[in-house]
Design brief:
The chain has about 200 residues and is largely without helices or strands. The chain is about 0% helix and about 5% strand. The protein has no helices and 2 strands. A hairpin with a 2-residue loop joins strand 1 and strand 2.
Length: about 200
């Protein structure tokens, strides 16, 4: 188990990666690392292995996490504003109450992830895989889900005002109580979706 005290006076180094702002740790193996509340703002963690890592409450604002492995990672309450998570694997990751304002999650895998109460305002989730994801109560204003797969996703009580869901796959999704004013569901597949506006059965 890799551990670190994010509040120590000296920089923490794990597997050659200095845990700190703007760290250059592309491709690093931090599997199962325990570094809650770490400050990794603007860090380069592209292609890093962070599966099972505890980054709860950490600051990853503006970080590069494209192609990173974050399967089952603990990111509860983590700050990921403007982070690049393009093609990142976040399968079953814990992102409850995380902040991902204007984050890029294009083609990311978020199957079974817990995003309940998370803030994804203005986030880009084009073509993201969100099958079975929990986004109940999430803040999704102006988020772009174009072409995303949201089958069986839980969006109860989510704020989707102004969100883009054109060509999204929402079969079996639950949007009961969600706010969808000014949202675009053009050509979305909504068979079996509860709470979707203008349901289609294509």
């Amino acid at each position: 188990m890799l551990t670190g005290n994010a509040r120590a006076a000296d920089a923490i180094i794990i597997n050659g990666c200095p845990i700190g702002p703007a760290a250059l740790c592309s491709g690093i193996n931090l599997q199962d690392a325990k570094i809650p509340r770490a400050n990794l703002a603007r860090a380069d963690l592209s292609r890093a292995n962070l599966s099972g890592a505890d980054l709860s409450g950490a600051d990853l604002s503006g970080a590069s996490l494209n192609d990173a492995n974050l399967r089952e990672a603990d990111l509860r309450g983590t700050h990921l504003n403007r982070a690049d998570l393009t093609r990142a694997d976040l399968t079953q990751a814990q992102l409850r109450s995380a902040s991902l304002i204007s984050a890029t999650l294009v083609s990311a895998n978020l199957q079974g992830a817990d995003l309940s109460g998370a803030n994804l305002r203005g986030a880009e989730l084009n073509r993201a895989q969100l099958t079975g994801a929990n986004m109940a109560g999430a803040h999704l204003q102006r988020a772009d889900f174009s072409g995303a797969i949201l089958k069986n996703a839980d969006l109860r009580g989510a704020d989707l005002r102004g969100a883009q869901l054109a060509n999204a796959q929402l079969e079996g999704a639950v949007l009961t109580g969600a706010m969808v004013d000014a949202s675009d569901f053009a050509r979305a597949l909504t068979r079996g979706c509860r709470g979707c506006p203008q349901q289609k059965t294509r």
